[in-house]
Fold this sequence. Notes:
Elements: H1 2-17, H2 27-43, E1 52-53, E2 56-57
Antiparallel strand pairs: 1-2
Amino acid sequence: KELEDSALKTHNRYRAKHGVPTLKLSKDLCEMAQKWADHLASIKTLKHSPCKLNGESVGENVAYKWTSDGEVLT
Length: 74
């Protein structure tokens, strides 16, 4: 929860600099995203989610980085 709040606060600070409305955290969307992330981890691949929230398609950023020195990217 602390990471989510910190990320949202940072993102909204950036949005405010550009005069756009703030965002709020969606519990439903967070749960859906976590389930999808768990699924991707279980099948060891990356692809976009077919999930919908309130009948609307949801989008996400899917990224992958590999390095031989063991560096972790989050």
